[in-house]
Amino acid sequence: MPDPQVKRTLERDVLPYLVSARKLKRQWFYRFHTLFGYTTDLVVALAAIGVSSPLFNLLAAKDAGADAADKTPTLASALAGIPSFLVYPALLVIVAWVIIRVAFTREEGQKRAVLARSCIQNLREAEAELHKLLRVKRPLASLTEMLEKRIRPTVDRNIQESSWPWLPFAPNIQVDVQKELNSLCSLYEEEWEPGSEPDIRVPPKENKP
């Protein structure tokens, strides 16, 4: 009979973390960080081929660094460079962009996005390693070690920095977790043997005097 503790550890601890990590890319700070990065790259690319715009430069000034920011046109010169019928729409775009940029900065969006990116990468590597761990007859010890020394410390750090917004898992992931569990069990469950290791989620009983 396969070791039920391995299946429980996967279902209740390991897989919920891994599935939740995939949803970090949907967080607002991660999306805005990507948007600002593409904007900066677009301005740099346009400037490299000699096609640029004061409006683009104004919007991307915050991300382009101090040297580029010194050369950024003023709002008046940026608006003067576009057709008159687009002045008010462009002004609205600039105002909205500034508001988003300020909110992103005040909420430490860039820091949170960078930490989230690192967290996604670390847990993705753990997910790849998971298949190797589950190929052995008694994977519980290695699975527990990965959970306690790799997955939880990474998530705990991101919780402290507000780049992991859930306590502890993302909502509505039960279907995805069960799908992943069924897939892993179909591949490796027949190889697992009952182990003697204690379940790490059950604290040891204290000896009473």
Verbal overview:
- The chain has 209 residues and is mainly alpha-helical.
- It folds into two domains: 4-23 and 121-191, no CATH class; 29-109, no CATH class.
- 67% of the residues lie in helices and 0% in strands.
- It is built from nine helices and no strands.
- The chain has helices at 4-22, 28-48, 54-60, 66-70, 75-80, 87-106, 109-133, 140-160, 174-188.
- Helix 1 (4-22) packs across helix 9, helix 2 packs antiparallel against helix 3 and helix 7 (109-133) runs antiparallel to helix 8.
- 22% of the residues are buried.
How much of the sequence lies in strands comes to under 5%
Estimated helix fraction:
55-70%
Q: How confident is the prediction overall: mean pLDDT? A: 80
N to C succession of SSEs: HHHHHHHHH
Q: What's the number of extended β-strand segments?
A: 0
Number of H/I helices: 9
Briefly note the structural class of the backbone.
mainly alpha
Write down the Rg: 25 Å
Shape type: elongated
Total individual domains: 2
Q: Unreliable segments (pLDDT under 50, ≥5 consecutive)? A: none
Cα separation of the termini: 38 Å
Largest sheet: none
Summarize the SSE layout with pairings:
Layout: H1 4-22, H2 28-48, H3 54-60, H4 66-70, H5 75-80, H6 87-106, H7 109-133, H8 140-160, H9 174-188
Helix pairs in contact: 1-7, 1-8, 1-9, 2-3, 2-7, 7-8
